[in-house]
Structure formats: structure tokens, C-alpha cells
Amino acid sequence: MINLQNVSYVRLGTADLDGATRFATNYLGLEISHLARNSVYLKSDQREHTLCYFAGSPADQAAAFEVSDLAELEAAASELDRLGHDVRFGSAEEAELRHVRRFIAFQDPTGNKIELVWRPAIGNRRYHGERDAGITGFSHIGLCTTDAARDETFWTKVCNARVSDRIGDAALLRIDEVHHSIALFPTDRAGIQHINHQVATGDDVMRSFYFLSERQVPMVFGPGRHPTSSARFLYFEGPDGMVFEYSSGVREIADELLYRERQLPFDAKGFCEWGAKPQIKEFRN
Amino acid sequence: MVDLEQLRYVRLIADNLGSAADFAQRVLGLEPIDRDQELATFRSDFRDYTLAFVTGDRAVQSVGLEVRYPRDLEIALEGLRGLGLSAGRGSAEDCTSRKVKDMAWCIDFSGNRIELVVRPLNSGWRYFPSRDAGVRGLADVIMRSVDIEKDLSIWTGVFGAHVSDWAGDAAYLRIDDAHHRIVLFPARRPGVLAIEYAVDDVNLLMRNWYALRDLQVSVVHGPGRRPASGQLFLTFAGPCGVLFSFVAEGASVGERHRPRQFPAGPDGLCNWGSECKIGEFIDATRGVERLIGRGANRSLMT
After folding, report:
1. Is the Cβ pair A276, B210 closer than 8 Å?
2. Based on the domain organization, do A172 and A272 belong to the same domain?
3. Do B88 and B176 fall within a single domain?
4. Which of A121, A173, A268, B1 is in Cβ range 3.0-4.6 Å of A182 for a Cys bridge?
């Protein structure tokens, strides 16, 4: 069993690095941690960075999870290798680019690029966004799955994720007490389906709704409230069609023994209890 | 000085009683109580009714507030006449149609009719809504005022209300532990601007936002949050040229609360940045620009 500690960062390729940077800072409200040649590192909380845009193909996307020690990382590598995944240790140079000590890269059964990292860097100063979006941190990712049952098995049996709820066949998975850190959405491709940042209050969700609407950022779902996690949410589209989410008030599951996952319908009501209707392909039948 | 105990009702003049009643039931989700050729009343809480649509010759637009004893009516009338206002006791017929034991009325400096009532009817049966809008009850009323200063002299001088906060020249008035029950909003003409019903919480407020879209009701302001009261609000167009709002949350204030000055217009009325289509609210900003332009009141610039 691979013990994922938390979701560390996302790496996104883009053909328009300047445009992506403008969106991430002026609209999304992240802070530039530092600029490097052909890449920009963005900060959303105490961590050194939680999002990296690099010049490249928008299809080139990776999500990283932290493991607690080197032995775990090595055990994970041999476990994944044994299961037939193509695992490789990142080079020292690659690790430096990611601000981690060591990492391994592999693909989940759908083909999503996943990295497991050891000792990701923490920043020496707190996050101060480009605008007052109220972001408290990078929190979870939606991943595409081409076979929901198969991938749910991978994340729960090989990794330590537990199912918190299901919307249709889409499993919301937790790796700590937060309701979900990974959500698997059935679709016909591999890739990151959405990227979530938590904001401090429901008011922040609504302020961003008006702020981004005024600036013609495409709203694709919400404002609304998830019946699963009880979080208030807003989904909107960023560069290269990537869906970003703000949410606030996500439920925490403290008692593993007493908690039982629930089944929700795969329709607008399963995604929102206020009556918002998703315009997101993976959230629609 | 009399003590206002409660906000009780708003009576509106309906051109079309049927469509007004339909709005109250289908959109606001209120419970129909009395209905005849000239009257339709609706319950929203423990009060027998809080909204009345009236048609015919005797129809008036008025806001009703409760005082405890008939002698309070005399004290109030004395104060009101002292201000030079036209005021008087209600007839037995007036009392019957309003389901109150006794009443007095006055016309404020703007031309709004305010009614003071004694022993208005409460319902023995609990409120059963027509639609699950989550309405908890009548929260407050926003009234237009063509002369805020003079109208305030009635509310603070005769009725014993306190100014909780200012948004531009609009005054939030409290008569109990709620931040406000009446808002006087500067305008060029009199009349009830908005009638506001409290709903359970933010979830009901937002659910209603989507429900109003499906009902094709025109939202004119919000959803948003008011900086002064902390209330969430959603304001939409209703019948009789009156706006209605759903509100939720919001702070209650104590005796020691100090009135604060918030900006005029939409900036001082919403801190989420919602779009505002209410003429009076937008005009309030222009009023300030005019003042600042003349250098009459620079303090309003902050």
C-alpha cells in the first residue's frame, strides 16, 4: 500500500505561458513564487509552489502526491513496478525543477501522469495573492478516468485512498480527513479534469463569481453547493480549457469507522443542491 | 415617544388581485389566508398575515407596526400632530379589515402611510408555506423618503427607533434586537421600495435564486451581502411596482451599537459586487457625486 500524504502540486504545459501566468495571477489570484526559463511557479499557500505552468503541450499534465519518507518512495516504486506500471525515478535536475528531494513518475491505469514526491519545499513566507480571492490553499484535483471501477480499485487498493461518496460512478476519494483530495470522472481521455483551490468563506466564492463574470471568464458551473462535501463552489474555465474550482466549507471525515459513503445521482441534483446546472462535459450525461 | 414592538404588515394597492396573489403564493411561497373581491392576505410566520393586497376605493399602501396599548396611539398622535403631520385614529371598519383591536395612522413627510396597531392578530396555527422557499418571516421594509431628515424625526422622535447604520443617506432603523426593521431610502417619490422576507440560511437564499430563474422572475439586485447589516439578500421585482427580497443571516445589534457610515449606492449595499438594477440605489451614488462636486460634504468621499 502506498500512503499518499497530500496532493502537492500540478504541472500544466501551455502554448501561451504569458497568458496562463496572467490568468493564474490576475484572475485566479495565485502569487508568483518564482519565474524560471520556460516555466512559472505559483503559490497558493505556505508551500513553495502548488501549480507550475511550463512551455509545452497543454496535453502534458501531471499531478503530484507527497509520501512521507524515502523508504516509502522506494517501496511505492517497486510495488508499482510489480503491478506493471512503467515507473521511473526522476533525475536530480528534474527533482530540482519540482523543488522536491526525490520523486518517481508513473501513469495510473487511465494514463494520467502521476508523481510521488519526497520532501517538497515549503516556502519561507506566507502566500499573498495578486488579488484578494481569499485563497487558503490548493486542495484537490479531478482526474479523468476511462474506467471508473478499474481506477477506483487502483486508487483505493494500491494507494490508500478511501471512497467518501459517489456521484453516479464518479468516486470522490479521500487520503486524509478532507472529504476528497482526488475525484475520478468518467470520460474518454486522460488528464486533469479540474483543479481546486479552497477559499476562506462562501462570501469569497460569491465575490469571485462577480469578479470573474465581469471579466468575461467563462463560468461553467455554479455558484452552488455540493450535496456530497457540503462545500460551496464555483467552476470556471482557465487557459487551455482547464477547469478551475473555488470552494469553501468542505466536509471533514474524522471518524473512519463510522463513516459510510453515499451514492448520489449523476445529474445536476447530485452535483448541486442549490439548483445550478453544470456546463462541464464530465459532469453531464 | 412610543415603543414600537413589532413590524406587522405591509398593505399594497393591487390593480390585479389575481396576479398579485399568484406571485405571493407561487414566487414568495407564502400561505394564503383571507381572500375576497377586494382583499388577499398572506401569512409568512406567527403573524396572521404580513402581506395584504387590497383593491377598490378604500385601498391604501401602508406599513403596519404594533404598539402595546391604545394610550400609545394617543401619545403617538400627539407627537405626530406636533410635527404638523396629518394623522388620526382608524375606524372600526379599518380595524376589522386589518384584524387589529385598535389603530392610528399618519402620513409621513414624504407621503408614506404608517399605521400603528394594537393587538394585531397572531395565528394559533403554524405557518404552512405554499412552496418550500424557507421563509421564516417578514424581516424588514425599505421605504422611500423624499426628505430623510424630516422623516427620521418621526421615527427617532416619536416612534423611538434608533439609527443602526447609514449607507450614504439611507438610514437603517431598529426597533428591536434586529439590525433594522425599516430602511429609509432617499428617493424622488414616496412608497414602499422593497418588502423583505427572511429565509432559513444561505442555502435557501441561493436555492431561491435558481428557483426564481426557473420562475422567470427578474432579479434586480444580488445575491449579495450588505456591509452594514451583514445580511445576505436577493431582491427581485414583484407586483404593484414593489420589490421583494429574500434575506438571511445578518447581525443583531445591542443598545451600545454606534451608527456607522457606509458608502452610498451599490458599493455600500453589497460587498460581493453583485449587479444592481434598482434606480434609487444607483441614484444614491450620483447624489454623493453631486455633493462632492459642490464640495458640500467631503467626508462622504471616504
Report:
1. yes
2. yes
3. no
4. A173
Encoded amino acid at A166, one letter: R
Reported as a pLDDT band with limits 50, 70 and 90, residue B295 is: very low
Residues on chain A touching B275 (C-beta within 8 angstroms): 210
Cβ of B271 within 8 Å of Cβ of A273? The answer is no
Q: What is the pLDDT of residues A38-85, one digit of tens each?
A: 999 999 999 999 999 999 999 999 999 999 999 999 999 999 999 999
Instruction: Categorize the per-residue pLDDT at B287 as very low, low, confident or very high, splitting at 50, 70 and 90.
Output: low
B290 and B194, same domain (yes or no): yes
pLDDT on residue B288: 52
Q: Does B128 touch chain A (CB under 8 A)?
A: no
Per-residue pLDDT tens digits for A186-221: 999 999 999 999 999 999 999 999 999 999 999 999
- Domain termination site, one of B64, B84, B118: B118
List the beta strands (DSSP E) in A21-169.
Answer: 31-36, 39-43, 51-55, 61-67, 88-89, 102-107, 113-118, 135-145, 162-167
For chain A, the residue count is 285
Asked if B120 and B100 touch (Cβ cutoff 8 Å), the reply is yes
Round to whole Å and give the CA distance between B1 and B162.
12
Per-residue pLDDT of B122-173, as tens digits, reads: 999 999 999 999 999 999 999 999 999 999 999 999 999 999 999 999 999 9
Q: Classify residue B126: in a domain, yes or no.
A: no
Q: Round to whole Å and give the CA distance between B242 and B236.
A: 9
How many domains is chain B built from? Answer: 2
Task: At A48, give phi and psi (nearest 5°).
Answer: -55, -45
Q: What's the gap between Cα A153 and its chain centre?
A: 19
Q: Which of B154, B158, B160 has the alpha carbon at shortest distance from B184?
A: B154
pTM of the model: 0.90
Q: How confident is the model at residue B254 (pLDDT cuts 50, 70, 90)?
A: confident
Could you list the residue range(s) of the whole structural domain that residue A75 is in? 6-118
Instruction: Report the residue of chain A nearest B212, measured CA to CA.
Output: A275
Q: State whether A43 and A94 are in the same domain.
A: yes
B207–chain A Cβ distance below 8 A for any pair: yes
Alpha carbon of B102: minimum distance to chain A alpha carbons (Å): 44
- Do both B50 and B139 map to the same domain? no
- Tell me which of A131, A274, A277 to substitute to probe the interface with B (most B C-beta atoms closer than 10 Å): A274
